[in-house]
Automatic annotation (TrEMBL):
Chain positions with N6-(pyridoxal phosphate)lysine modification: 45
Family: Belongs to the pyridoxal phosphate-binding protein YggS/PROSC family.
One Pfam family recorded for the sequence: Ala_racemase_N
Organism: Thiospirillum jenense
Keywords, comma-separated and alphabetical: Pyridoxal phosphate
Domain of life from the UniProt record: Bacteria
Taxonomic classification: Bacteria, Pseudomonadati, Pseudomonadota, Gammaproteobacteria, Chromatiales
An example molecular function term from Gene Ontology annotations: pyridoxal phosphate binding
Job description of the protein: Pyridoxal 5'-phosphate (PLP)-binding protein, which is involved in PLP homeostasis.
Listed name of the protein: Pyridoxal phosphate homeostasis protein
Domain Alanine racemase N-terminal: 17-235
């Protein structure tokens, strides 16, 4: 039997969740964004289930996970909770079926074979899988994501996949403390989106901004910020 909640972790999480919501609200106001236009995705990878449940109890519904097996373990325990599960990690070809079956959103699509498999493997009784295309906006060797120059052609072919719904773009830029560099990078993703969006494909979602740079992302149009450590504290070592 798993003991799910300790009162202490619940109280702490209440306060941390309130603090993140306040940061989001303050940034919305400061940068002229419509109140409530930025959604919080709670990035719960490598966090214990008790913390997810505490955040859920405090009203959080959208959770982001990066490792499929870890996420499935959590989903099995939290099956009674009405959680909106987002996959934000590196996609492995042999995991696409599980992702297509167990998540509502995938933020990290940047490979056509993966997109094709996700579409083919999306169960017919579920709505189309919401996806964001991950863009390697700061052109780092080690980061996942599509080069900006490849984006238009990629969207053209992924749009044809019947069981995927392209919602917008995602990026995880190189870490920097310089606010103006953070903003410039996020502005690049917004500009790309503005160039590619059309009435029949509005690309309304910009999934950008994490614990350290969510203000800059909101300033530049983020509609989903993905926050892990600032909400849940440090992650467990390497694996779950
Ligand atoms: C881990 C992760 C995050 C959260 O980062 P924090 O610095 O913990 O807020 C956001 N996005 C992606 C893609 C991640 O892998």
């Amino acid at each position: 039997m798993v003991t799910l909640v300790s009162t202490q972790s619940e109280t702490l999480l209440d306060a941390q969740l309130a603090a993140i919501r306040m940061r989001i609200q303050t940034a919305e106001t400061q940068f002229g964004r419509r109140p409530g236009s930025v959604a919080l995705l709670a990035v719960s990878k490598q966090q214990p289930i008790t913390r997810l449940l505490a955040a859920y109890t405090a009203g959080q519904r959208a959770f982001g996970e990066s490792y499929v097996n870890e996420a499935l373990t959590k989903q099995a325990v939290l099956r009674e909770q009405l959680i909106d599960w987002h996959f934000i990690g590196r996609i492995q070809t042999n995991k696409t079926r599980l992702i297509a079956n167990h998540f509502n959103w995938v933020h990290s699509v940047s490979d056509f074979t993966h997109a094709q498999r996700l579409s083919q493997q999306r169960p017919p009784d579920l709505p189309p899988l919401h996806i964001c295309i991950q863009v390697n906006i700061s052109a780092e060797e080690t980061k996942n994501g599509l080069a900006p120059a490849a984006l238009a052609d990629f969207i053209k072919i992924v749009r044809e996949l019947p069981r995927l719904s392209i919602e917008g773009l995602m990026t995880l830029p190189a870490q920097t403390d310089d606010f103006s560099i953070q903003r410039r990078t996020f502005a690049d993703l917004r500009t790309l989106r503005d160039q590619l969006a059309k009435p029949e494909l509005p690309l309304t979602t910009l999934s950008m901004g994490t614990s350290d740079d969510l203000e800059a992302a909101i300033a530049e149009g983020a509609t989903i910020v993905r926050v892990g450590t600032a909400l849940f504290g440090a992650r467990a070592g390497d694996h779950f």
